[in-house]
Design goal:
Pnp Oxidase, Chain A, Rossmann fold, 2 domains, eight-stranded mixed beta sheet, six-stranded antiparallel beta barrel, binds adenosine-5'-triphosphate, binds magnesium ion
Length: 367
């Protein structure tokens, strides 16, 4: 799908209104380049001096060529090769190029094994390859994607369900060019929702279809019906575990439930916090052996993430390690997993496409 014609083009002049509690200033700027997510614009000049609008400043933007107005934010500022700002485009401005997104659910048996950290950093790794990646925070117990990303979303799926907002209004831009759909308590009561609320949720999620290349769902841990159904509605499930015996036993419990389904998925297995590739080989082989013996489920080992002090360090600072420690061992491991998932479709580990998540979710949650 080509970019809509209201998308600001290089050479277009924009009027920027800086909205701050302290002042309201109006500037002009020229579009230098555009991509799917951002516009790079010349640094506005005010009274002969560069207006040093800082990163994070909210702005209202009007394109003088076609009169289109949208809310945006300065996401980057640089002075080489010339002074320029990067501002984000609203999600409505662009569409993905393929038929439908690939949906991956990240789940675990035991809590605290690193799902949210993994989801966020994998999303950033995939976004760095030019994919438009969304995270749906569907962890009902401890929804914390926004916390780890230092985002303060004002609205979440609860507002969508209750008719206060549309889905596109609640999406927040995260670091590294990813998008987050804050779950809040919006998914808590799927089983008890009124039909019209459930329909609003589905229609909302369905509207993501035209914008997303990849959707990662942080499902939360455990075996609740919601977790299992979310996992089953995805194209693929990633079961994350650490090499600890407790975590492995709980991961096996999830595999057992998946094995009991009519349409058996073939989940990926990722080991987090391993000491070495050797440990990964040994532990994953053991898991596969047990699954092979007792279940009729095909598990695909996808990779591992090394135990790495950069992970808790960056989590404490609320900064994804993929951005702040791109060469750390954990970042390299995540990039390797992202590359396998995005490998050409014929490769064994690439995410399958052409699967309708939204129909599947409807089918699984319909009562
Ligand atoms: N590869 C790693 N190396 C070191 N520490 C890690 C690694 N991965 C995760 N951690 C640490 O494990 C802790 C739990 O991570 P995280 O919150 O992502 O887990 P979770 O599975 O989402 O938890 P919950 O089930 O509560 O949602 C964090 O303190 C994180 O820093
Ligand atoms: Mg979590």
């Amino acid at each position: 799908m080509s970019a809509p014609n209201y998308m600001p083009q290089p050479g277009d002049i924009l009027v920027l209104t800086v909205v701050s509690p302290l002042y309201r200033n109006i500037y002009k700027s020229e579009v230098l380049t555009n991509d799917k997510n951002n516009l790079i614009i010349s640094m506005p000049v005010s009274e002969g001096k560069l207006a040093l609008i800082s990163v994070g400043t909210p702005i209202e933007v009007t394109c003088t060529r076609n009169g289109y107005t949208f809310s945006s934010e300065v996401t980057d500022r640089s002075f080489t090769p010339n002074a320029r700002l990067t501002i984000c485009l609203p999600i409505q401005y662009s569409s993905n190029d393929n038929k439908g997104p690939s949906v991956l659910a990240i789940t675990s048996g035991k809590g605290g094994v690193g799902k949210t950290t993994f989801t966020i950093n994998l999303a950033i790794s995939m976004a760095q390859t030019g994919k438009r990646v969304f995270i749906i925070d569907a962890d009902l117990g401890t929804a914390n994607v926004d916390i780890l990303l230092n985002l303060q979303p004002k609205f979440n799926l609860n507002h969508v369900v209750n008719r206060e907002k549309e889905l596109l209004d609640i999406i927040v831009h995260g670091p590294g060019g990813i998008f987050v759909v804050p779950g809040g308590s919006g998914l808590q009561n799927l089983a008890n929702m009124e039909q019209w609320q459930f329909n609003r949720l589905l229609t909302g999620l369905q509207s993501l279809e035209q914008y997303a290349d990849i959707i990662l769902i942080d499902t939360g841990a455990g075996l609740s019906k919601n977790v299992i159904n979310f996992a089953l509605s995805a194209n693929k499930i990633i079961i994350l575990t650490t090499p600890e015996p407790h975590a492995i036993t709980d991961a096996y419990a999830i595999m057992k439930v998946l094995d009991e389904q009519r349409d058996k998925p073939s989940p990926y297995l990722v080991l987090n916090r391993v000491e070495s590739a050797k440990e990964y080989d040994a532990v994953s082989e053991k898991i596969l052996h047990v699954v092979d013996r007792f279940l009729d489920l095909k598990i695909q080992p996808l990779g591992y993430i090394l135990e790495d002090p950069a992970v808790p360090k960056s989590n404490r600072k609320l900064e994804p390690f993929m951005l702040h420690y791109p060469d750390a061992p954990a970042s390299r491991c995540i990039n390797a997993i992202g590359a396998k998932l995005l490998s050409p479709e014929k490769e064994a580990l690439s995410i399958p496409t052409g699967y309708n998540f939204f129909n599947k979710i409807k089918e699984l949650f319909s009562r």
